[in-house]
């Protein structure tokens, strides 16, 4: 079957294809509006990293700039769940480990 025959077949069955799409769309809309409960989720990924030699010093502007620069480097790792789980499993909750937390609620208000 070449391309021209496929286009002709699609044109012949166009009404049936549109009907199937509309039925699927309507069914999905009804399920989402009336039967499924809405759940809102928020996920945060952070890195536990505190240098004990620095003591309780305040956060400085340079620390913030460094953090902003490190975001690009760590974002690739943080976006990958498989890599993230491997790192957390290997390092546990010790310093330097990436942590991933997700909260679920049915109320959209913060």
């Amino acid at each position: 079957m070449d391309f021209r025959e496929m286009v002709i077949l699609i044109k012949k069955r166009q009404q049936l294809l549109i009907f199937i799409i509309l039925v699927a769309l309507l069914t999905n809309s009804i399920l989402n509006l009336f039967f499924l409960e809405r759940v809102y989720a928020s996920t945060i990924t952070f890195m536990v990293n505190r240098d004990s030699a620095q003591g309780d010093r305040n956060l400085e502007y340079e620390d913030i700039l460094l953090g902003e620069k490190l975001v690009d480097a760590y974002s690739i790792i943080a976006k990958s769940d498989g890599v993230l789980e491997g790192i957390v499993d290997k390092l546990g909750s010790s310093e330097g480990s990436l942590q991933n937390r997700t909260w679920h609620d049915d109320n959209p208000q913060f």
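The two ends are 56 Å apart (CA to CA). The first helix runs from residue 3 to 12.
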